[in-house]
Amino acid sequence: MTEKLAAQLLEEAALTLEEVAAGCRVEVDWVIARVHDQVLAGPPDPDPAHWAFSGADLLRLRRIQSLERDFDADPMLAAMVVDLLEELARLRARLRSAGLDPD
Amino acid sequence: MEFKDYYQILGVTRNAGADEIKKAFRKLARKYHPDVSKETDAELRMKEVNEAYAVLSDPEKRAAYDQLGRDYREGQEFRPPPDWDAGFEFSGSGFSTAEAADFSDFFAELFGHMGGARGRGAHPGGGFRARGDDHHAKILLDLEAAYRGDTRTITLRAPRQDASGRVVLAEHDLSVRIPKGVREGQVIRLAGQGAPGLGGGPPGDLYLEVHFEPHPRYRVEGRDIYATLPVAPWEAALGATVKTRTPDGNVEVRIPPDSSGGRRLRLRGRGIPGDPPGDLYLELEIRLPPADSPRARELYEAMARELAFDPRNNSGG
Q1: Residue A79: is its pLDDT beyond 90?
Q2: Which domains does chain B have, with CATH numbers?
Q3: What single DSSP character describes residue B136?
Q4: Nearest to A7 among B26, B29, B189 (CB)
Q5: How far lies B158's CA from each of B92, B100, B104, B317, in Å?
Q6: Is the Cβ–Cβ distance between A58 and A23 less than 8 Å?
Q7: Quick check: A85 and B38 CB within 8 A?
Q8: What is the tally of structural domains in chain A?
Q9: For chain A, what is the mean pLDDT?
């Protein structure tokens, strides 16, 4: 029998520090270090207990983590690659909305 | 079940050293990275490459695989002998059961049993209790699901522990109520639908990254929707009220007089619902009636005679 489930939309400030660390399969300290490196938008609150993360933050941190793992990448380099990938996705979406095939 | 030649997948010889394996993996990880690769099967190949690297980069798994697979070739029919892994001890590192969900049945058959005794800081036995891993997947939704918050059935492949403690990959269906107003690239969470917990710990969550299926009529950017609205020349010239479809049902749209082709009309708040909701943009496309009858030709000829119209004037043509 198919289970019926309600899905929660992760908009702004939906995830705690512990949840985002579990979602990236990393220790909390890894997330704290990346937030202090300002790889997410906006300067962090001084107290990590007050931090809250969006679904987009989770995706971004997971991408950074996989680049660091697969390529032994420097965290700043991994963040820059993710900046470029996100920019690429934005530009592709704009091409599609203009009726052009990005590929 | 077919044998998988992990050395062949990474393009290295069986006596390749750890550095060589790592180098080959990185080269392929770059080639098949799903965000940049132009290869049509990039995602599938990346999963194979990850799986091969998960085995060959782990000395314990590699030694067991080497002993077992010595006489097999890629694609050959394969069945592991019972207790083939006796004498090997897997401490588990690198890839989690969540990531192993993407791996093949071959991998699950060989290494699946170790998954249950893993997790962050997990130790087999001894009253250990831990939350299950979170799982992540991408889902393709139709645009209408975002407008209305419909229920959709999605099929996922996830590791599950069988009665003997072996982790097997099993497909299961989930009927998910999609939150109204979800946008491309957003994440939705299904609490408790990740990997089972250990020692009575709670299960992990399932995170789904939302993408929209390409739609023949609508293009999506954020919460805004773009579509083409075909109009007759007289509707564009004289103005008209026309009926058209939107993802949310039919609407009547007023075309202002003297509209040119390519003009965009905005239907405020008719995009994907939200706070604020997106807009629906309709781009006018003027379609000419064919001059395929004497009467149609007469009408075109009358226009040519009586309208002082030069389409190349002021257009550089």
Answers
A1: yes
A2: 1-94 (1.10.287.110), 127-213 (2.60.260.20), 218-306 (2.60.260.20)
A3: E
A4: B189
A5: 18, 8, 11, 60
A6: yes
A7: no
A8: 1
A9: 86
pLDDT tens digits for range A39-50: 887 777 788 888
Sorted by sequence, the CB contacts under 8 Å of residue B81 that are 6+ apart come out as none
Task: Tell which wins on pLDDT, B36 or B142.
Answer: B142
A10, A25, A98: residue with CB nearest B186: A10
**What domain range is A62 assigned to?**
17-97
Q: How far is A43 from chain B (nearest CA, A)?
A: 22
- ∠ CA B28-A24-A88, rounded to 5°: 55
User: The pTM is what?
Assistant: 0.72
Q: What is the distance between the alpha carbons of residues B26 and B3, in angstroms, rounded to a whole number?
A: 23
Q: Please check whether residue A67 lies inside any domain of the structure.
A: yes
Answer yes or no: are the C-beta atoms of B107 and B142 closer than 8 Å.
no
Q: How far is A13 from chain B (nearest CA, A)?
A: 12
Please enumerate residues of B whose Cβ is less than 8 A from a Cβ of A: 25-26, 29-30, 35-36, 38, 96, 98, 120, 131, 133-134, 136, 151, 153, 173-179, 181-182, 184-191, 193, 204-205, 207-209, 219-221, 224, 226, 228
Least Cα separation, residue B263 to chain A (angstroms): 13
pLDDT of amino acid B96: 55
pLDDT at residue B49 is higher than 80: yes
pLDDT at A34: 93
pLDDT recorded at residue B302: 95
Q: Is the ipTM of this complex over 0.90?
A: no
